[in-house]
Write a structure and sequence with these properties.
By secondary structure, the chain is α/β, with parallel strands linked by helices. Helices cover 34% and strands 17% of the residues. Helix 1 crosses helix 3.
């Protein structure tokens, strides 16, 4: 985490890998879809700092995720709600058929990153104004762009896999 108490790209990566390990150790099967600034920071050459990580995951697993997030938070001195599904209210109906990027997958845990078009749709649904204009514009890519997302730590340095999300 940066000195201001915000997650930067490196801290986001480490936190998500730690959550995946905790979920796997608990013997749970959970699929996460990371959205918001964290997804932007992990995919694009844009600075993105965030105070929390927004992710979508099954409502039936909400208590387990909150418990694991609290364990990780206590270990690092973070707010217990650092990993949350507060963005759920801005979930787009488009997301069930969206192309997403596998950030990490191990055992029964899969962490996917929402692509730019879904991130932009969610920002628009949230109707956020100038306060997030920098983040929203970082979702925009020119039509026909072939720029690949950054590699993930779990992919061994290769471009992450594109996939269809299951919700």
């Amino acid at each position: 985490m940066s000195p201001g108490g915000l997650f930067d790209r490196t801290a986001i990566q480490a936190a998500l890998i730690e959550v995946a390990r905790e979920v796997e150790a608990a013997g749970l099967d959970i699929e996460f879809l990371v959205v918001g600034s964290a997804a932007i920071a992990l995919q694009f050459d844009r600075p993105a700092l965030t105070g929390d990580l927004d992710a979508l995951y099954p409502m039936a697993k909400r208590e387990e995720v909150a418990r694991i997030a609290a364990v990780v938070a206590e270990r690092h001195g973070w707010d217990p709600s650092w990993l949350n599904d507060d963005a759920l209210m801005f979930q787009s109906h488009y997301d069930s058929a969206v192309r997403c990027i596998v950030f990490a997958s191990t055992g029964g845990v899969t962490i996917r990153l929402a692509p730019a078009d879904l991130l932009l749709a969610m920002r628009l649904l949230a109707a956020r104004g100038d306060a997030t204009a920098t983040t929203s514009t970082s979702c925009s890519m020119p039509a026909g762009s072939t720029r690949s997302p950054r590699p993930s730590p779990s992919s061994g340095g290769t471009t992450p896999t594109r996939c269809s999300s299951r919700n």
